[in-house]
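Batch job 17 of 40 flagged for manual review because the log was empty.
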Amino acid sequence: EGRVLLIDVRPAFFFKLGHISGALSLPLKIFDAGFSDIRPQIDAARDAGNLVVLYCANEQCPDSLSTARKLSALGYSSVVYSGGWKEWKDAGF
C-alpha cells in the first residue's frame, strides 16, 4: 500500500532468483558502495513517514540486523523482518 520500503540485504544473486515484490536490493557486503544508489528512496520513505523494512534469507541470517545497525549509524531507523525471504515464500506470496 505504499507504506513500506522493503530492502533485501541478501547477495544480489539470490535477489535475482526471487524477492518480495517491490523490494530494493542492498546486499550487506556492498552496503558502503551501494547505499548511495538507494539513499533517495530511503529518504523519500522517511519523509513520507513510511517504514524501512530489511529482510534476509531467514531467521538465522544476521545480515538484516547488521544492515539495520549501519543505517542507524547514518541516522536512519528501520525494522527487521526476521522471517525473511523463506517465511514470505513459504506463506505463498
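Reviewer: the log was empty due to a logging misconfiguration, but the result itself is present. The mean pLDDT is 95. Unflagging and moving on to job 18.
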